[in-house]
Write a structure and sequence with these properties.
- The protein is built from 2 helices and 4 strands.
- It is of the alpha+beta class.
- The two termini are 18 Å apart.
Length: 73
C-alpha cells in the first residue's frame, strides 16, 4: 500500500471492541502512522490508514486480530 493514506473494507466487526482490536493490530504494522475504523455493525466497515505499508502485512495484521479484509481469502 503506497502513499500517505488508504482505505480498506473490513468484514465481521460488530462493536467498539472490534474496532479497537483492529486499530491496535494495524497500527503495529511497519510504516503505518495511524489507523481508524468507521464501524458499520454487521456490515462492511472502513479501515482508514495513514502512512505506507505492505498490503500483505496489512492483511495479516487484520487476520491476526480475528477479522478479514472484505474480499480477501
Amino acid at each position: 500500500m503506497q502513499g500517505s493514506g488508504a482505505q480498506c473494507a473490513l468484514e465481521g466487526l460488530t462493536c467498539g471492541h472490534c474496532v479497537q482490536t483492529v486499530e491496535k493490530a494495524v497500527s503495529g504494522v511497519s510504516g503505518v502512522h495511524s489507523a481508524s475504523v468507521d464501524l458499520v455493525p454487521g456490515g462492511t466497515s472502513r479501515l482508514n490508514i495513514t502512512g505506507t505499508c505492505d498490503p500483505g502485512a496489512l492483511a495479516e495484521a487484520v487476520r491476526s486480530s480475528g477479522y478479514a479484509l472484505a474480499g480477501a481469502n
